[in-house]
Amino acid sequence: MRLLVTGGAGFIGSHFIGSFLSENPDAEAVNVDSLTYASIFKPDFERQFGRRYSFLRADIIDSEKMAAACRDADLVINFAAETHVDNSIATRCASQGQTSLALPPS
Ligand SMILES: NC(=O)c1ccc[n+]([C@@H]2O[C@H](COP(=O)([O-])OP(=O)(O)OC[C@H]3O[C@@H](n4cnc5c(N)ncnc54)[C@H](O)[C@@H]3O)[C@@H](O)[C@H]2O)c1
């Protein structure tokens, strides 16, 4: 199984990827994250999981990049979010739906 995980450099996403790849030795995960101030990127995933882990720096509203990234994925799990409430109010993220995952029509 090949997962595409958005927000995988954040708290929940990084723990999810680590647990998922540890418990499923045949699985692969692609982490798509724009690396905002909130990310806690875990560079050791490459060393820990080798080719089963890959990282793509991208914004989830970039539909072209998301379409390409999703092409080979069996499942997409969206953890990308503006999670700091004050920032989500102050920026256009919350008001304009900027954290909705952009996917092509199926
Ligand atoms: N932390 C918790 O205890 C908790 C509990 C329940 C639910 N959740 C939910 O889980 C999700 C993730 O929470 P978290 O605590 O891991 O947040 P986090 O702030 O630690 O991580 C969010 C990640 O999303 C990335 N990101 C933000 N906007 C992006 C964009 N437009 N494109 C690509 N990447 C983007 C950031 O760079 C960051 O790495 C949220 O929806 C949150 O509400 C969290």
Briefly say what this structure is.
With 106 residues, this protein is α/β, with parallel strands linked by helices. 35% of the residues lie in helices and 19% in strands.
Explain the layout of strands and helices.
Blueprint: E1 2-6, H1 11-23, E2 28-33, H2 44-49, E3 53-57, H3 63-70, E4 75-78, H4 85-90, H5 92-95
Parallel strand pairs: 1-2, 1-4, 2-3
The site of nicotinamide-adenine-dinucleotide (NAD) has 22 residues, from helix 1.
Walkthrough of the structure:
The chain has 106 residues and is α/β, with parallel strands linked by helices. The protein has a single domain, classed as NAD(P)-binding Rossmann-like Domain (Rossmann fold, 3-Layer(aba) Sandwich). The protein is 35% helix and 19% strand. The chain has a four-stranded parallel beta sheet with strand order 3-2-1-4. It starts with a strand and ends in an 11-residue tail after the last helix. The relative contact order is 0.23. Residues 6-7, 9-13, 33-36, 38-39, 59-61, 79-83, 99 line the site of nicotinamide-adenine-dinucleotide.
Q: Write the CATH fold name.
A: Rossmann fold
Integer tally of domains: 1
Figure out the total of helices. Answer: 5
State the helical fraction: 25-40%
CATH top level class name: Alpha Beta
Average pLDDT, to the nearest integer?
86
Radius of gyration: 14 Å
Q: Tell me the total number of β-strands.
A: 4
What's the SSE pattern?
EHEHEHEHH
Largest sheet: 4 strands, parallel
Ends distance: 20 Å
CATH architecture: 3-Layer(aba) Sandwich
Amount of beta strand: 15-25%
Low-confidence region ranges:
93-97
Q: List bound small molecules.
A: nicotinamide-adenine-dinucleotide
Fourth CATH level, the homologous superfamily:
NAD(P)-binding Rossmann-like Domain
Gross morphology is globular
